[in-house]
Specification:
2 copies of one chain form a homodimer. By secondary structure, chain A is α/β, with parallel strands linked by helices. Chain A has a single domain, classed as Ribokinase (UDP-N-acetylmuramoyl-L-alanine:D-glutamate ligase). In chain A, the strands form 2 sheets. In chain A, strands 6-5-1-9-10-11-12-13-14 form a 9-stranded mixed sheet, sandwiched between helices. In chain A, strands 2, 3, 4, 7 and 8 form a 5-stranded mixed sheet that branches. The radius of gyration of chain A is 19 Å and the shape is globular. Chains A and B meet through helix 7, strand 14, helix 9 and helix 10 of A and helix 7, strand 14, helix 9 and helix 10 of B.
């Protein structure tokens, strides 16, 4: 299946306890696209950048088989820029700078060749932009995956709810699931979010893993325990990208295969956090992925002999 | 194998957002013993109670096959009493009352018949009491399991470290593991705790499950996602009890069997939190346990077809 991704292609400047970067390649669509390219998925990006965006970054994406025709370049504008500083525990961060720039007037252009994509991955953006992309598709994709965040719950809830209503799979973190649903129990939160539209609800819990809910069934995975997390930037996007790309590559949208997709996404994200930004993700090989998927298997496999009577 | 358990047998008075209790049966050894009795394990408790402790509670334990000869009754004293109020999220609580009472002078008496127990489960207590029990054994048990908490790290660290050094399996929560090791990464924390003595480190993460570390290997389980947690009191003790009892019942101290034991302990604890105190745990049947172990299997089982090349 073809995968169409909408989201930011941007500059990030990151500070962690281990070091800091100048402006480097970032953005949700970038991480999602790179994750998809590891699986050699047919993937197109829709985004917007400014005249300051280096051709070398576009070449990098193209060289990995990522279709970039949908990345508009506004010559007179500047690329979206985010800068943040992580705290010592790496679980929390302060945003230092957000320059929306060309993203403020982003009117996504979906290339004709991508309008029939079977899977649409809507990266974190204003929900009205996400909605507009859905409307530009030739027909409704077989699977619409939505990533969003609390910012849109606070500032554009009605539009977000309209978008959620048209979504098959929503990915949000645990605090956001609680905010969106008003329920503390994640099981109840997922039940409530199901009634808003999505038949699949993925709740991301960072270092504690993720949960997938569907028709009363639950699948849970831990995160791969890592000795060091170097930079968490893009981990959630990589996870979503690996998830969507696995489904596209295997052309299988069953619950069972979504479980596998969760593992692939998590394995991929476990690499992203090892270096700054996209640096590690760019180097991930099939063999790497195989290793981490096997690690997940070993991490979670058990047998219980039901002797008790 | 025989299981010997040392810990509090006590009164609890609990307030949750869903209701409150008068003084009810509580204490670490009580939960551990009841969990072991579900598996029909050969289990003896060592503890101390006051003259106010109802014979009916002792009868209850005896009726479940739990050996109570090691529970000393100090007629003129009062039983340990704890009272607490849980916050709305049930993850945090305030202690309202702690009356140590007869526990202040607890000098554990290990019945002769239990001195050769192969597995010693040291429930959360002052580490000097835990050490004294170990010294009273006929010979060193094959497996010493230690539960402890941050309070002893703050008030009796040297003695605690001496106890930890004589421990095979330590169970602590994530924050305590960080405090004990000075490491934020749980992988590094476990590595450091290994150097203190225990070859097995279990880190409990509450609603996020648990991790088992041994010789560079890691096993992770999620907690069973529950719609409602009614009262978390005793969940950690039930978990430890189910874990220790499974090992005793199966006479198998291998890493593979410890993974199973973690599942059995978690399945057991998932019942404890459904009602106040020991109420639900007292009613758990083998069939119940089978159901929840199967739920864990369903929750965590996945296949990934390694198509990527």
């Amino acid at each position: 299946m073809k995968l169409l991704v909408v989201g930011s292609v941007a500059f990030d400047a990151i500070e962690t306890p281990f070091g800091k970067t100048d402006k480097i390649l970032g953005g949700a669509a970038t991480f999602i696209g790179l994750a998809a390219s590891v699986l050699k998925t047919d993937v197109s990006l829709v985004s917007v950048v400014g005249g300051d965006f280096p051709q070398s970054y576009l070449d990098l994406l193209e060289s990995r088989g990522i279709k970039t025709q949908g990345i508009e370049m506004v010559r007179e504008g500047k690329t979206f820029f985010w800068s943040g500083r992580y705290h010592n525990d790496l679980n929390t961060r302060d945003t230092l700078v957000t320059e929306v720039n060309v993203m403020a007037d982003f009117d996504p252009k979906v290339p004709d060749a991508a309008k029939d994509a079977e899977i649409l991955m809507l990266g974190n953006l204003h929900p009205s932009i996400q909605l507009s992309v859905l409307e530009k598709m030739q027909k409704r994709p077989q699977l619409v995956i939505l990533d969003t965040m609390n910012f849109w719950m606070d500032t554009a809830l009605d539009t977000l709810l309209e978008m959620i209503n048209k979504t098959d799979v929503i990915t949000i973190n645990d605090e956001e699931a609680r905010q969106l649903s008003g329920e503390y129990s994640l099981v109840k939160a997922a039940q409530k979010i199901h009634t808003m539209g999505p038949t699949y609800v993925i709740i991301k819990k960072g270092e504690h893993g993720a949960l997938l809910f569907h028709e009363g069934k639950i699948f849970a995975i831990p995160a791969l325990p890592l000795e060091d997390v170097f930079d968490p930037t893009g981990a959630g996007d990589t996870f979503a990208g690996g998830f969507a790309a696995h489904l596209a590559k295997t052309s299988d949208l069953s619950f069972e295969n979504m479980k596998s997709a969760l593992i692939v996404g998590s394995a991929m994200a476990s690499y992203t956090v090892e270096e700054f930004g996209t640096e590690r993700l760019q180097k991930v090989t099939a063999e790497d992925l195989r290793t981490r998927v096997a690690a997940f298997k070993q991490l979670t496999t058990f047998e219980v002999d039901l002797y008790f009577d």
